[in-house]
Amino acid sequence: MPGVDVTVEVCGMAGDGTIAAGGLINEAMSAGGFSVLGFDSYPAEIRGFGRCVTRSRIGDEEILAMEDETHVLISLNDQQSISRVPVLAKDSALFFDNNPPTYVTEEKSLAAEVDPETMLFGMPFSDLAVEAAGTDRGRNLTALGGFAAVCGVPPDFFRRVITKKFKPKGEKVLDANLKSFDAGYDYAKEHFAARLKTMFVEPERFEGRERVMLSGNLAIGKGALDAGLKLYFGYPITPATPIMEYLAKMLPERGGAVIQMEDEISSIGAVLGAGFAGARSMTATSGPGFALMTELITHGVMAEIPAVILNAQRGGPSTGLPTKTEQSDLQAAVFGGPGDSGRIVIAPTNVAECYAFTVKSFQLAEKYQTPVVVLTDFFLDNRVENLPMPEAAEDDIAGGNIFPDDSAKGSYRRYLDTETGISPRSVPGMEGFTFSATGLEHTERGTPDYSPDNHMKMSDKRHRKIQGALADLPEPREFSPGGKLDVGVVGWGSTFGSILEAVNTAQSRGLKVGALKITAIFPYHGDVIGEFMSRCSRILIPELNHSGQLANLISHLRGNDVVRLNLATGMPFPPSAILSRIEELVKAGA
Amino acid sequence: MAQEHCVIIGNGPAANAAAFTLRENDSDVRITVIGEECDHQYRPDLLPDYIAGTVAEEDLFIGRSEPYKQCDIKLRLGQRVVNVDFQSRELVLEHNEMIRFTGLIIACGAKPRIPEPLEVFEDLMLTLKTPADARDWIDRLAHVDDVLIVGGDLTSLSLTRALLHLGKRVTFLINGGSFWPVPFSSELRDEVARRLIERGIEVTECSKIRRMVKVSDHAVEVRTDCRTMTVGILGAFFGLVPNVKFLARSGLDIERGVLVDEYLKTSVDNVYAAGDCAQVYHPGIHDYWVSIGYANAVELGKTAALNLLGDMVPVNVERESILKIDGINVNTSWWTEF
Amino acid sequence: MNETHHHPSKTGTQERVVVKDVSYSTDPADFAYMSLNVPCQSACPAYTNIPAYIRALYEGEYGTSYELNRMVNVLPGVLGRICSRPCEEVCRHGEPELGKPVNICHIKRAASDFKTAGHIYLEKFFAPQGKRVCIVGAGPAGLAAAHDLTTIGIEVTLLEAFDEPGGMLRYGIPEFRLPREILNAEIGSIVRLGVTMETGVRVGSDVSVEDLLNRYDAVLMAAGCYVAKELEIPGDTLSGVIPGLDFVMDVTTGGTPEIGKNVLVIGAGFTAFDCARMALRLGADDVAICIRATEEELRVTQDEILEAKREGVQIKGLMASRRVVGRDNVEGVEFLRTRLGDRLPNGKRKIVPIEGSQFILPADSVLTAIGQGAEPIVSPGEKDRRGVLKGDPMTFLTSVPNLYVTGDFMTGPSTVIESIAGGRRAAERIAEDLTGKKFREWAVRIEEAQVTDRQREWDYIPRSEMPTVLPVQDRFKTGNIEVEKGFSPERSHIESQRCYLCYLHYEIDISRCIYCRYCIDVAPRDCIKLVNEVVTDENGAVTGFVETTSWEDVNAVVIDNSRCIRCGECLRVCPTDCISVSKVELVERMLQTGRD
User: Fold this and answer.
1) How far apart are CA A35 and CA A141, in angstroms?
2) Mean pLDDT score across all residues of chain C
3) Which of A519, B123, C251, C414 is the most exposed place for a label (fewest CB within 10 A)?
4) With an 8 Å Cβ cutoff, are B255 and C339 in contact?
5) What is the distance between the alpha carbons of residues C320 and C340, in angstroms, rounded to a whole number?
């Protein structure tokens, strides 16, 4: 029997409670033991008008990516939902308000747009909510009640998460929301008795499982907290702002501080200052902010100061597409800025990695005395996954600093040229160890020196140090049966989930294909990647950008013989597009 | 001027014949077909076999989306018309949508009739007209062994056969003076009774059902003039009535069905009715007439469509098909008695 | 205050009297407002203050609720059962997307049912006027006139031809629809005011109209319509063809007329339905009402049709009787099929019989209920072609001084509530003619008000239908079991919550409105409008709005009270408190006793 794999959408206008409803679906289904991947999209305006859509893919296998088609659409605003009709799967279910306050003309009617096979579940959302609770604020809950009844979700799972969400707002609010939900549930049970479309079979799987719903952004925030972040400096920018919001709430409780700076330049300056002083600190920004930071990031490289910079990518260049996803800052993250300014760049591919890599980045920054860029993207930041509550290992939290021996007291050289390139570090306040932080090329002691030999030597030391970090960076992970492959798909960031789903499907269809996940973007594991590439007849690199930035970075490992698959749609990469390209390549090679 | 928009209410044989006839004869007109049921067009005559398990559910259905797409006909299923404003030429769907039309063909069919004195017991009775009804029967039959059929019409005979096939015990309560769609002649009554008894069905006659009481989820007690019995399911078969309640007070002339002239035109311009919701005065039988049967419906649907496009085709009243169900010949293609 | 609630009149001749925060208006514009915006009260021939009595019942004040009815309708308990309910047809709750009308009629019955034994009748008496009036006929019109004239201070003698007062209420309506103790009690409360009642006196034969005119200052003829119209087709004199009204009167006076098993009723009014239902109670098996048009065109209430059908009455449409068939006794009726023709000015359809379509329905009895007319009474004065005294519908005067007519006797068969209203108006006119003074006057009463405790969710309460005795077999145990069981106090309270209270008037003070449109956002329907212009008629009455979607053209944000369901949401969200509520009612003021 095929497993559960259902994509549910809630669509409405800002103010309809769309995001809240989507969140409750995620929570309820997660509590029910399903894997959940949720992704909301909302309008670009800072506050606002326009359409909100939440999509939740729910399944009994681990969910790796969003699917193109929607099986259930819950419309809280029909005019907005009309735009969602093209993504509706055949035989999908549509929940909509069948008693809007005024008549709707045919041109503006959702029911007029859908295919005849679409199962229509018209319910008077507002009326039911008003009838049950005296206000139509709970109409989104009423809609959820209908969804639960028709699709076979035990109502208690919703009641529980509703209680959790609204209890803090007082008994009255909670009661109104529960009543609204029940009204929808009862109505649907009564009116659609003959047409219940149980999608979530095996109700016994709705046994509570300890999982939490986390977005990429919250995972990053939590990772930073768990890693012992002391100071956060930043300037708000979509899609990184939720990190700052989260930390602003949590960090002060733990004795830290969040300071909003006047811009991104001062933010990175403050982060470097804190790092220089020995405190764990970070900033989070997106492409336009990152661009402003690059000059000071190279200062961190030159002065060898730890810093953690999160770059949450969005559609660019410039202001670009603030609320859309893209993977087009890779080159800026790796190469952005003046001079030979190598730094560590790592890119998580899912929410669990968002947490783990954030934790790890502080240690890396300390150990290698360098700015570390964590590269995420809008889709990764804003999607929610249900996963076991992430926890960091002691080893990953531990300080990364390599401090000088006491024996070096007096003869201490801040930029000592060692075999690893790592110079034992001093911070202000360490008696007998002269600290230094200079943007000028310098000697081992930190004094300016522009001589050819010195610049060669120190450049080499810094380069050696960064390359050496490879030992501490996560290796590429291969998903394949091993051996020779017809097609190998290499990818990074949020796109990798789509790649893996496509590859899994291709494998289940009997194709000899594999996937390679790269999370260490710079430095990268050229040997591992090269070996994988050599085993594959064709290499496919799908990326959500126009220029193929990862391909540009690594395709030399195979004499530039790679196939690029680039989408710059602002939307998450559809697995189906990768799958069909894989199948084409396999066919062409056969 | 806006494009012509012909709306057809209904998704049965008359409605669909009308829609495709419209398209054949006019490539420009916008056509919308609105069906109240969620299912595509189906064969009601197969429902008893579906209940018996000898016909698969997918074989019930005639229509699928493709032909409609090819002919650029908008098909809307599971959407109910609740009101028509003939003055502003707009119809209102249950979900408060308003559709403007320039031409309208009402072919919304008929629904099972429950005599008013029995309406209070409606929840205790099953009818059989739609696939949804059939699914109800299937669900309920899983739990019961005996079935009481009240009334009597052609559908009830086929259903009885299906029930026997399933090994159920059937009692037939011949009620009142008609074996829908025809008045009971004594020959017909005897013929029906004889055939039923031959099959091992108990046939009872009574003039009035006094009371029905729900005993449990799967048992109903029925009290008639002459006896009291407890059965698992009570099937009500009193024929059909046009499904035109939504037109009450719309200003359109309706009696049992939508009143139309011999060109199927209603009392409102550019509004036609066809199939078994149309009530036509039949000069041949000198009475009002509501058609039954697939062939009639198709014929009327075509006629309505042609006349809406400007023809003046009178309804074919000569047709007289012989319905032969379960070996009993019923020599009619219409009903007049209500 | 006046400015806020007043649609300015162009004529401006009427004066307003302001007492505290209450004002009264006789401006035609305000009456026009009432008919558009408080449709129920205006639709009632007696102008019953429906929102007020429903609100009183909601508050548990059954007595007050009853009195609010009784001040314009002397028989609330009766009308709470058998009224034709023109109010419900126009009730705003019944507009297409709003559900079904409030069950106004049966709330009235609840007020009557649940008023306490200690309920005090409120009667306002004027000083004695030294005049005497004789009223002929103790039906609803005569009773209403007797009541009003008595309270005005005029001595009334009420002559009734039958043994008991009540007229059609007693003799034309079966007991299973109207229990007699209710009727007797309400008639009693009129008579006890000092009316001299003489029953069994048939004017024209027992006493002449001239004689009465000599003995009294005025005579009011309210003798009703008791002559059944005949079929006037061949065979209509066969045995077994019974005039329906005679049949009903026979049963209501205790008779048990012979009736066959198979009964055809020819006719389409309440009497036809009463005949059919009585026939079933007398043992008929198959009863069909044969009508010339369709069920759609019937003018009886939906409840009546439903209950009759439940009892087994069939309604057969599109047939016109042509001939009664039979040798000595009736054996059947031959009908022609009919076609609906054009709509006539009176709202009914022209019926076109179809030649050649004759068919015969068998029958043992045929009851004819195709209408009735007034019985000609010997009197002076101008008569119509049937010999019935004619009167002026405005002044109620005949061609003879001091001789007045009213009720069905003047208008032909009408409804009970119309008769009561007609009786009252005639009484007012007679009193004015006799004394030269006006006693009562209709005005629009405007009072500042607050938003009520009505909850938005009450708008979704489904209409409570009158519970009836079911299954129908239980109705037939005896002939006069009241079929309608009446609401319980709880049920009537719930039903009373449904009333929107359209007598509340919501208005935006444009001078304080900041055009934020919050009110429009929360509006339950398109009741608040962005308006470029307000359209008024020659009286200054608002007849419509010119709406606009262009901001530059918006001159006001206006609440359209004909769309408003009085939910109060706009008022609750208004940030500037620029929305005010007032209560507007049609009231009858006592002109000679100071202000109400």
Assistant:
1) 22
2) 92
3) B123
4) no
5) 11
- Measured CA to CA in angstroms, residue A82 lies from A51, A77, A109, A110, A369 at distances of 11, 9, 8, 5, 53
Burial class (CB in 10 A: 0-12, 13-18, 19+), B196: buried
Chain A residue whose CA is closest to C99: A99
DSSP label at A21? H
What's the gap in Å between the CA of A128 and the closest CA on chain C? Answer: 8
Contacts of A102 in chain B (CB under 8 A): 96
Q: Which two tokens stand for residue B270?
A: 């550019």
B68 interface with A at CB cutoff 8 Å = yes
Structure tokens that stand for C15 in this block:
């004066």
List of chain A residues whose C-beta atoms are within 8 Å of the C-beta of residue C526: 101-102
User: What does the alpha-carbon distance between residue A176 and residue B293 come to, in Å, rounded to a whole number?
Assistant: 52
Burial annotation C527-565 (CB, 10 A radius, 16+ → b, else e): bbbbbbeeebeebbbbeebeeeeeeeebeebbbbbbbbb
Range with the poorest average pLDDT among A442-446, C402-406, C449-453: C449-453
Q: For residue A100, what is the nearest residue in chain B, using CA coordinates?
A: B96
CA–CA distances in Å: residue C356 to residues A255, A509, C292, C334, C398: 102, 76, 16, 12, 47
Q: Would you list which residues of chain C are within 8 Å, Cβ to Cβ, of chain B? A: 96-97, 285, 294-296, 306, 309-312, 314, 316-318, 337, 339-340, 354, 356-359, 470-473
CA B6/CA B22 separation, integer angstroms: 9
- Residues A69 and A15 sit within 8 Å (Cβ to Cβ): no
- For A:90-119, CB contacts with C below 8 A are 99, 101-103
Describe chain A by its helix, strand, coil percentages, rounded to 5.
Answer: 45, 20, 35
- Give pLDDT tens digits for A190-224: 999 888 887 876 545 555 567 888 999 999 999 99
Other beta carbons within 10 Å of B195: 16
Q: Which amino acid is at C301?
A: T
Helices (H) and strands (E) in chain A, counts: 19, 21
* Residue B98 in contact with partner chain A when CB distance is under 8 A: yes
Q: Which residue of A has its CA nearest to B90?
A: A105
Contact assessment for residue C75 and residue C49, using Cβ atoms and an 8 Å cutoff = no
Which whole-number Å values give the CA distances from A337 to A32, A269, B93, C370, in the listed order? 48, 15, 62, 101
Asked whether the beta carbons of C339 and C214 are under 8 A apart, the reply is no
Q: Which of A479, A492, A501, A378 is nearest to A66 (CA)?
A: A501
Interchain pair B248, C296: CB under 8 A: yes
Confidence of residue B317 (pLDDT cuts 50, 70, 90): low
ipTM: 0.89
The phi, psi pair for B179, rounded to 5°, reads -115, 90
Nearest chain B Cα distance for residue C366, angstroms: 20
B259 vs C340: CB contact, 8 Å cut-off? yes
DSSP codes of every residue in A199-250: -S--GGG-S----EEEEHHHHHHHHHHHTT--EEEE---TTTHHHHHHHHHH
A459 contact partners, CB below 8 Å, separation of at least 6: A340
Whether the Cβ atoms of residue C91 and residue C37 lie closer than 8 Å to each other: no
Predicted TM-score (pTM) of this structure: 0.82
Distance from the Cα of A196 to chain B's closest Cα (Å) equals: 12
C385: Cβ contacts below 8 Å, ≥ 6 apart: none
Model pLDDT for residues A290-316, shown as the tens digit of each residue: 999 999 999 999 999 999 999 999 999
Rounded to whole angstroms, how far apart are CA atoms A95 and A160? 22
- Lookup: tokens for C118: 């200690």
What was the pLDDT predicted at C593?
56
Burial bucket for residue C520 (CB in 10 Å: 0-12, 13-18, 19+)? middle
